[in-house]
Amino acid sequence: MGYAIQEVGLFPHFSVGRNIGLVPIIEHWPAERIQSRVRELMILVGLDPQLASRYPRELSGGQRQRVGVARALVADPPILLMDEPFGALDPITRAEIQREFQALKQRLNKTIVFVTHDLREALLIATRIGFFEAGRLLGVYTPAQFMSTTDRVASQYLASFRTGNNWPEYK
Amino acid sequence: MRLVEFFLNNRTEVIELTVEHLWLVGVSMLLAVVVGVPLGILLTRRPLLNKPVLGGANIMQTIPSLALFGLLMPVPWVGERADRLTILALTLYALLPIIRNTYAGINGVDHAVVEAGRGMGMTDGQLLVQVQLPLALRVILAGVRVATVISVGVATSAAAIGAGGLGEYIFRGLAMVNNQLILAGAIPAALLALGADLGLGLLEKSLRPRNLG
After folding, report:
1. ipTM value of the model?
2. CB half-sphere exposure, B211, CA atoms < 13 A
3. What was the pLDDT predicted at B213?
4. Assessment of whether the complete model's pTM goes beyond 0.90
5. Is the CB of residue B110 less than 8 Å away from at least one CB of chain A?
6. What is the mean predicted confidence (pLDDT) over A86-102?
7. At what angle do helices B2-9 and B179-206 cross, to 10 degrees?
8. Cα–Cα distance between A20 and A7 in angstroms, integer?
9. A91: pLDDT strictly greater than 60
10. Which of A22, A69, A79 to mutate to test the interface with B (most CBs of B within 10 A)?
11. Chain A within 8 Å of B210 (Cβ-Cβ)?
């Protein structure tokens, strides 16, 4: 199972290439296969393959999170678990990476469990939305269903999300 | 200077005592690392052992060195020879800084990194060897440095029970009220301690570039 978290958790003492390729290295893949796979994934997540020799501290937040996603995908797992992976990014980078991810997942053909507190992100990325409260699953909806649900808790949440977004009025 | 003359005239003995001193410190530090680092690692897995192990090592350090030598004398095999006894005592003294720094170093590794590693399917062993130990190495080494410097100092007391080392000169000088002799032991010992501190400090620094997060 592939795993990506908000803090990314890249190994600071390994290069980007080694971070991505860690699982293959542990499983003793042949070296050329590891190299080509790392390169393939870096291109897939939108990273210049030349960054493979850099270290995490030399990368921006967005680049680091892309490395995190590449790392999660390296062994081609059928399931990907992502826990608020884009939560720590600035809004602009975040929007960009969300759009890219939405395009990416079409090509991946995997089951992705994506945890988020951002309803917009969920509506943008998800094929199904699982709505949880206090650890209990209250319902599963398609994005369209969620927008028009009559369920009390879900529609309350939707309403407060819509009005809760601060957009300052400047005259 | 009379002291320099003394060193030149007695260089065989000075070298012999210095080597003895280094031997006592070297062997005990090796033992302390071999025992202390795994114990420190164990503490990170079983936090319940924290109090007894760290408490025990702490008590060892509080006991004055000469008293510790005396207390260890009845121990079979070890208590029979002065050098074995000294090595055991020095090892016990070195344990606290090493265990404590290993524990702190490993716990100090960014939790996100550990979580990511576990999520990727790394076993505890792989995580330890590939991630935690390399990242904790500087802190562990700092503990080794402190322990070594302490050891060099404590080893001077070893001469009191006949284990040799530079303390020989110090005790002889004290008995004969000969300041030159005392210095002949004290100065090399101090230099050894400084040298160990500097040397290990340089080693620590050389580990810096990669490990900065």
Report:
1. 0.81
2. 19
3. 42
4. no
5. yes
6. 90
7. 80
8. 16
9. yes
10. A22
11. yes
Sign of CA dihedral B41, B44, B49, B51: positive
Cα–Cα distances in Å, from B2 out to A135, A150, B16, B172? 81, 99, 20, 17
CB B178 within 8 A of CB B172: yes
Whole-number Cα distances in Å, B175 to A140, B128, B160, B168, B182:
88, 52, 11, 11, 10
What integer is the mean pLDDT of A150-155? Answer: 84
Instruction: Give, as one character, the DSSP assignment of residue A4.
Output: E
User: 3-class secondary structure for B97-130?
Assistant: HHHHHHHHHHHCCCHHHHHHHHHCCCCHHHHHHH
The answer to whether A42 touches A20, Cβ cutoff 8 Å, is: yes
Residue A23 with chain B: CB contacts under 8 Å: 120-121
* Chain-chain contact of A5 with B119 (C-beta, under 8 angstroms): yes
Q: Cβ of A23 and B120 within 8 Å?
A: yes
Residue carrying the six token digits 């032991």: B185
CB A138 within 8 A of CB A131: yes
Flag whether pLDDT at B211 surpasses 60.
no
Work out the widest C-alpha separation in chain B, in whole angstroms.
68
| pLDDT tens digits, A50-67 | 999 999 999 999 999 999
pLDDT digits (tens, 9 = 90+) for B140-150: 999 999 999 99
List the structure tokens of A148: 């028009």
pLDDT in tens, B77-135: 888 888 889 999 999 999 999 999 999 999 999 999 999 999 888 899 999 999 999 99
Residue B3: count of CB within 10 angstroms of its CB = 13
What is the Cα–Cα distance from A86 to A8, expressed in whole angstroms? 9
pLDDT computed for residue B24 by the predictor:
94
